[in-house]
């Protein structure tokens, strides 16, 4: 079907929402970098309920679902006009010390 949004763009939408969410906690990408930790995405999932189309107005909601030993953020994408939920998904990130490239098994102090 022509005019359908490419599936890879959903991850871009998730990242924009994730960055906005983390900025609300004063732990955006700049603060992460300054803390000495990286937070790579190690797992992700998208469930496409209804296809998005070009020029469709959407709203993406992100929420922290888990934050003890890893950071799991859940996402929902809604059509602005109808309010219909079109997509759900999540990302999982773990803390990695930038200097050692080792995964940290506990949440660093000051993180989300």
TrEMBL record:
Keywords: Hydrolase. InterPro entries: 4-hydroxybenzoyl-CoA_TE (IPR050563), HotDog_dom_sf (IPR029069). Pfam families: 4HBT_2. It comes from the Bacteria. GO terms for molecular function: fatty acyl-CoA hydrolase activity. Belongs to the 4-hydroxybenzoyl-CoA thioesterase family. This is Acyl-CoA thioester hydrolase, YbgC/YbaW family. It comes from Kluyvera cryocrescens.
